[in-house]
Structures are given as structure tokens and as C-alpha cells.
Amino acid sequence: MASPDLSLFTYPNETPFVELDCLAAFNALTDKEKLYAHYLSQASWYGGLIVYVQTSPEAPLIFSLIHKLVTAESVEDLKKTAIESGKATEDDVKALLVYISGILANSGNYKGFGDSKIVPNLPKERLENIILTSAAHKADPKAIETLWNACADKIYSLEHSHQHLGFGDKGTTTYFTPNCTLKDSELVGNFMKKYNLEGYNNRLFKYEDDGKTTYEVRMASVLNQQDDEPFLMKDTIYEGCTFRVTRGDYSGLLELVCQNLEKAKEYASNDLESNMLEQYIKSFRTGSLDAHKSGSTYWIKNKGPVVETYIGFIETYRDPAGMRGEFEGFVAMVNKEMSAKFGTLVAHAESLLKELPWPSTFEKDQFLKPDYTSLDVLTFSGSGIPAGINIPNYDEIRQSEGFKNVSLGNVIPTSFKGFRHQFLSEADVAMMDKFAVTAFEVNVGLHELLGHGSGKLFRKEGDQYNFDVETVINPLTNSKVTSWYEAGDTYDSKFTSLGSAYEECRAECVGLYLSLNQDVLKIFGTEGVEAENVMYTTWLNMLWAGSAKALEMYSPASKKWLQSHSQARYVILQVCLEAGEDFVKVTETEPGKNLLLSVDRSKIKTVGKKAIGDFLVKLQVYKSTGDVKSAQEMFNKYSEVSDDGAYPWARWRSIILAHKQPRQIMVQHNTKVNGNTVEISKYPATAEGFVQSWSERFSSSKVESLLESLWQKDAKYFYAEPPAKLSAAC
């Protein structure tokens, strides 16, 4: 078997770093608001360390090792000592700093966008040399060597099952033990449905106990099994296996989260914020998902806060079963000017929903107008920083209480800095350079509010339906609806691993479809010729992402998509290519070297609108009715990467990879309490600045010992041979 292409798994030394600036927005806060934001940020940063435990068996040790390295001395001293030793070059040290940055930016050694492994871009012996000449090693050689020996091989391993996240022998995950397969996931899913449990805040451990297969569903909480407070349920026999629901996952880290949420509560601006934080604390303390749902309800009702935040086990993209949430937390300040535009969009939402192509019976009975704000991010912890969010993800709350939309205003322009658009004509490159930021703002606004915020799920609870089973007609069959969500079903539990890419595709299509509306473009400050250019750029950018970027996130070996948004955009491109009439074309202009994407802008409002509209009807009908089989068949067809025909994407992938640009890493601020106010620190937009920001983020080495103890607790489930104790390092 050929060796894997290292460029797919490394961050190059020229990786760009950009500052996520929010100084003006933060400095405009009162002292009380700054303290509120600071303690929420601390809770988010501590909680973000949970992601290392959720990513791979070795990730907690990698964090502990690199955190010891960068806190024992300055980056400049680390660099100077390594180079002067003669055992490492300046390029070697740069490669290490970029690797460290990649680990910290993704909260683990797998990319948050794409799920592929991150390995150092320098030889193992050179990295070891830098570690052994460091101040951290001089201070405690036994601890550093113990950590290095425990994770060095895993850091560099690119065995097939280590290259990407996934089940069992096909990938790496810590949401499940390695002996779990898709069948195990389905069995556990059925058990959880029967006993009304959801997967957001748990992991699954499978082992033998007294000769019987046992599935341990371990809930995230501060409290452990031995604590007196009553817990969920006793051991249960289901399908001949023992099911054991326990708690105490990430206990020490969640204790730090709760301590900071308690402090933040002292500076809350109203009862809704206090009640929200109280419920989050209860959830993280006890493992109760209902408490987090309650906190989310308070959060939705807290309209237009000056400091916005959300925290918990949220997005399910990286669970191979699509049910378990990765921890994330964000803190941000409202951008009033941009928020006014989103407020106007919300005011028009009900009329815009009527323009969507599915029948009104497939739309929610009542549109609950959400809070929609543009935010300047102060803190975002997790495996990546999105451009926009539509939360909470709990189906029952979204249908009955509503949701919130946030556009991360300082993320959007930052993400376009220094970017080159390949595979386009010079005229289209100029169009993207001029209008891409505005077009993306339009797309994000529509995607979050009316994409994720639209559509009804048909449900049956007992003998009651939430739709008229006698009169509602399926537009694809012209007959009555014959499928729906039963009691205990959620979108995630039914659509599982398909769910994320499918829902992102639906939201992206809504954004494209409604970007044709002149009133929408006017809300975003564009009219006339400029509005037409923004509309064209919105479509061009989506189709460019589907053709020029998406296949970076596809694995030919496993024939598996590694990233939901990338798969969604590729599917949209295929739908538009299928529409014909020379609406969209991709040609190989230089054999094996270059491609050209062209979009006939005169046909967007005709051919393009019809193609996306017809596709949207199918997407929504299958989602509303829970028709996973039809959804899977359709989506798999458009997701196929073929190596023949008019568009040999499997062959063209090598051309796309040859033009690949490194993904940016965003440098965030730190805050620190000084008396009755809070100081904010900024850092250079470099690898050195990024690493420095992390070296100053936590006030003690306690986080290292907590992660090491969590690794030790789980090690027996993830290693064939019991690893060495880390007592020397703890």
C-alpha cells in the first residue's frame, strides 16, 4: 500500500495566522459586563479542554506535553535553546510551533474541519530533540519523557485507522470504544430511544462483565457514581446485553466550568441570565440534559443581551453516529450596526418563508421570531470557529420555543484575508475579491435564520399527530403522508451519520434560493447593479466551494466524506451541473493541472432557481416525514465522486489538492481580572503569538494533571496493552 500523502495531514510552515479582533467591542462594555464576559470565557476555555478527551485517546497527553513546553519558558527562549543546541533548525522549530498551533486551534490532533489527523511537519527525532533541550525537560525530565514516550508513536502514526475520525478499524474516535461498530451504535440508539435518553452529553464504552456484553452510557457530570444524589436508572437488560448508565465523565474539567459559571452569575444583567446559568451549572454538575434544555429556554428568552454566550455539548458533526455533542462555548459582544440588518431580516422572515418551494403544510405552524444578532467574538472554544450558528439543536425546543441565530461578525471578514480564488476567470476573481464578504454575510444570514430555522417535523405522540394526517399531501407522491417521527425519535437519532451534511445542504440551498430576493439584498445595503453582483457572487462562491474546495475533504480510500459542509456544497454543485443548459460548467483547461468553473449568471434566476427549488422540496419532504431511506438514496447519488464521465471528480481531485491553500488559524484575545475591571490582551497574528496566547490562558498547571488523569481513567479501553502509569507526570 502506498504511503499516505503527508501534505494532507500537516500544517505547512507558511500557514497563515489572523487576529480575531474585538477590542473596540470589548472596551465599550461596562466593568460589570466585562467581568461577566471574563468568567464566561474562563468557563468556555476550561470546557473546551473536554474536546481533547472527545477527539482521540492520545490528544489529552499531547495537550499536556505541549502546554508544559510553552509555559516553562517563552517561545523565543524555546526557539533559541533548540537552535543553539545544533540539534534543530529554525525551520524545525517553526514546524513545531505551527503543529502546536494546529493542535490548540482544533482542540486535538484531528482537524475540526475535515476530521483528518494532524501530524508534525518535522521528523520525529527532530521534535524529540527540541523537547529534550527545553526548559520543561530540564525542570522535570522524568515527567516530560514519560509523556513523550506515552504519545510519541501515536502522534506520528498514519495507519489507515488513524488517518481520520470514525468507527472501530475504519477510524479513530473516543465517543465509542474501539470495539464498537455501527451495529453497536444502532443497538444503543434503540435502547436510548426506548428509555427516552439522548446522546448529546454521553460517550459509549463496551466491555465484558461476568461474561455478558455490557454497554456503559457514561454521562458528562461533576458528580460521580458514588455521590449520593439520585441518578438516572439501574442496570437494565436489553436485547440480551447489560446497559449501564453512569456519570462522572470529564468531572474535574466540568468542576472548573461550574466554578466560573457561578462567578459569572454574580455579574448577570437580569434574572433570565441568572436562571440560564443556574440550569447550565445543574446540567454540568449532575449530567441532566433536561437542565441544559431548561437553560437553553431561558437563553432564547433573553433577547438582545449586550454579552451573548452559549455553552455545552452542542454540535454532533464529529460523532461517527451523529448523535453526541462536542463541547463548545462562546462569548461575544453585539455589533449593533450589523444586528440592525439581521433584525430587519427577522421582521421579513414570515413573508420570506412563504417563498420557499415546499407546501405551507410542511412549514412550522407558527414562526417564532428569534433573536438574530451579529456578534464580535471574544472567546470561542472547541474544534473550530464557525461564521454563524443557529441553536439550540434540541428539536422539541426549536419547534415549541424557537431558537437564536448569531452571525459571528468579526469571523466573516477575517476568514477572507489573504485568500486566493483559483479555477475562476479573471473577471470572476475580481468579482469575488470585491463582493465575497457581503455575499457571505447574506448567505450566512439566510442559511441560519431561514435555512436551519425553517421546516416542520411531522410527529406522532400516542394517538395524536402534529399535522392533519387526512389532508396533508406529499408533493412528491401526490398522496397522503405515510411516515413521521414516533415518540422518542429526533432528527439526529433517525438521520444519524447522514444528518449533519443533509441539514447543512438544506440550509445552504435555502440561502441560495432566497438570495434571489431583491428585498433581502436591500436589507444588506445593496441595490441595483451592486445587488445583482452580490447575488451572482453568492451563487458563484457556493459553486466554487463545491468544485474548488470540497474534495479536499473527501477520502478516496474509504470513499467517505470527512466534512459535512464540504459534502453539502459538492452535492449542490452536482444538482446545478445536472440542471444542464450550460448553466454551470467545469472544464479541464490544462490536462492534469488546471480547471475552470463558469456560471452563466443570466440563468441563475431561471435554471438555477428551478434546480435548487426542486431539490429543496425533496430535502424538506424527506426531513419532515423522517423518510431516511429516500433521503439517503438521493443524497448518496449526488455525493458520489466518479472518475469517468463529463466530470471525473475522482481524477480532478489531484488537481484540486495541488492548488490547496492552508487553512487560517485565528488568534484570540485573553482577559484577566484586575481589581474591579478586566484587562484584555492581544497577540501578534503569528505562530509565536498564537502559542503565547495559549501559554497565558490558564493560571496553573492543574489542567495538565486533570487531562492526564482523564487519559489514565480511559486508557484500558483504548490501548491493546495497558499503558504505563503517568504518576511521574501527574
TrEMBL record:
GO-annotated molecular function: aminopeptidase activity; dipeptidyl-peptidase activity; metal ion binding; metalloexopeptidase activity
UniProt xrefs under Pfam families: Peptidase_M49 (PF03571)
Gene3D superfamilies noted in UniProt: 3.30.540.30
Swiss-Prot/TrEMBL catalytic activity: Release of an N-terminal dipeptide from a peptide comprising four or more residues, with broad specificity. Also acts on dipeptidyl 2-naphthylamides
Enzyme Commission code: 3.4.14.4
GO BP annotations listed: proteolysis
Enzyme class: hydrolase
Cofactor detail note: Binds 1 zinc ion per subunit.
Keyword Metal-binding in annotation: yes
Residues annotated as catalytic: E448
Annotated Zn(2+) binding sites: H447, H452, E504
Top-level taxon in the UniProt lineage: Eukaryota
Keywords: Aminopeptidase, Cytoplasm, Hydrolase, Metal-binding, Metalloprotease, Protease, Zinc
Residue runs in coiled coils: none
Cofactor: Zn(2+)
InterPro entries hit by this protein: Dipeptidyl-peptase3 (IPR005317), Peptidase_M49 (IPR039461)
Record's GO cellular component terms: cytoplasm
Keyword Iron: no
Locations listed in the record: Cytoplasm
Family named by the database record: Belongs to the peptidase M49 family.
Record-given protein name: Dipeptidyl peptidase 3
Organism, as annotated: Thrips palmi (Melon thrips)
